[in-house]
Each structure stands twice: as C-alpha cells, then as structure tokens.
Amino acid sequence: MSQADSYFAGLDIGGTSVKAVLVDATAEQIGPLVEVRSQVKDGYESTFGQLENALDQLAAAAGIKRSRIGGIGLDVPAPSSNGVIWGRANLADDWVGTDIRGRLSERLGVPVFMTNDGNAAAVGEYAMRKYHTSSLMLVAPGTGLGGGLVMPGGRVYEGVNGLALEVGHVSVPFREDDGSLPACSCGLTGCSEAWVSLMALRRRVGLELAKPQWADHPLNQGDTMVEEKAYRLREFAEAGDELAGSIFKQQGFILGFMIADLVRVFDPGLVVIGGGLAETSFRDQYMAWVEEGFADRAWPVYRFSPVEPDQQTTRFEWATGGDAAAAIGMAYAARELFS
Q: Domain spanning 3-128+323-338: which CATH class is it, in words?
C-alpha cells in the first residue's frame, strides 16, 4: 500500500470519552468525529478495546478497511515522555509507568505517536489554520489552565521529559485582598492556574459573595453549593451582571499578564485562547481584558514592530476546534510523522 493510499487517525483520550478523527494523505478530514466511552478507570487494556472500536467506526464511515490506517496519533490526559505516562491524574494505576505507545502500536500493528492533551489541542489549532506556518501557542483555561506550543512546520514542543508548557504553574505577582497567595492544586501558591481556571472561579465567587456589597446578589440567595454558583457565573456574565463581569475581568487581565511573560520567552507570534469561554457571548470583551493584561506586562516590541508600527508582533485569536481539536491535532501529527 502506497503512502498516498494511507489514512491517519487521531485518538483523544479523555476522562469519560475517546474522540477520534480520520484524515487522508493530504491531511483532509474524512468522515465525522467519532466518540466512544474511554473506560480509563478500568485500565489501559480496557481503553485499548475502545480505541479499536473507535478505529472500526472511523473506517466504516470512510468506507475503507481498517488496515488502510497507516499511523495513529494518541493523546492522554496526563504527563508522559516517550510513550510512558508519569502521573496518574484520573487514570487507573496500571497506566503509570507503562509503555502505552509501544503496547498500542504492537497491538494494532501501526506506528503510534503519543503526547498529552494540551499539546494535542495546540497541534489541532495549528492544523486548522492552513494560512499559518509559523509557531503557535495555545493557552486554555478550563478546570485547570493548560497550554501547548507548536513550532513552525507543525511539530509540538514537548521538552526532553514531555513536561514543557505547564503554563498554569507560572507564578504571577497577584495577591488576595488580605495579601495572601492563593493555593494551587499543584501544592504551590501564586500560580496562574490559581487565578485563571474553574477552580479559581469557585474560590473567587466564595470570597466575593462574602463581601457586604454582594449580600443581595441572586447568587447569595438559597443554599446552592459554591460549585454550582461558579458554574452559573458565565450565565450571569452573559446577562451583563456586575459581579460576574468583575470576576471574569480579573481573570482575563491576569491571563494576559501571564501570557506576556510566555511570549517574552517563546515569541510565538500567534496566541490562541482555548476553553469554554470561546463560546460565550461576552468573549470579545474577555479577549479585550486579556489584551489589556498583555499590554500592561509586555514590552512594546512584543506588541508592534519597531520597523512597521502598524504590524502586530503578537496576535490573539480564539480557538476554533472545540472538542475535536485534540483528535484533529493527533491525526495531523500522525500524517506528518508517518506519511
């Protein structure tokens, strides 16, 4: 079988589902996004069975035999290096220390590339921007704060141990009203993730609603748990609520401030903001807050060219791949590596 006749699959393993995409030798997506249960807490062998299920569905939808899939890109929701997962995260114990990439490749009889989910999403955003050939940095607020860096040509920068771009654990010089540094899930204090994430929203909602000025706020009525209040904050922000707006403004500003330091190190040219905020009605306002924070911290040369003052040296865009970005990124990476 010639490489021109090959197809390449991207498999995105999440905590509850596996998302899968198929591309052809020209990197064009073939057929729909396929989604199956992941079963990660039942062990990697159980999830391998689901990966095969997803590959069978991809092949059936494309009208091809599965044997025509010549390479696979796989991403996992945990730190890994050279196909071996280093940390358990939300996985069963048997994932840790196992050569997942090697065992899957042996089982399926095709080469496999493996990285973490943040890197995969970054590659996906790169792949969907066919006009963009230089580097791209993805920063994605979600439950935590993830990121990834794609080099010119589409190769992801993982670091020697697969631990690069842990952007959520860059320290930022912001403090709570009492002067304290917020605790991060990693065990440190003052991390950007402690300010910009769903976990941070929960803390901030609780602190703000305890202030007298918000005593009559609708979120202070009843005995709703703080997790539910944080979840509803986006709804309030979309309705123009002052409290919700102030919280997201702080998050956006701090995110942009932190990105300025990353840009000073990597100079990517394009910064893509991912996460659920990309789908909100106030996303333009949020992006303006991000750019305000960036402008507060960035050197002028990282904003506009000193030679051509109208030329931006760092651009910001919203992510466009949604839930499919990581799977698309892995299919693209497999095609680049194995075609």
A: alpha beta
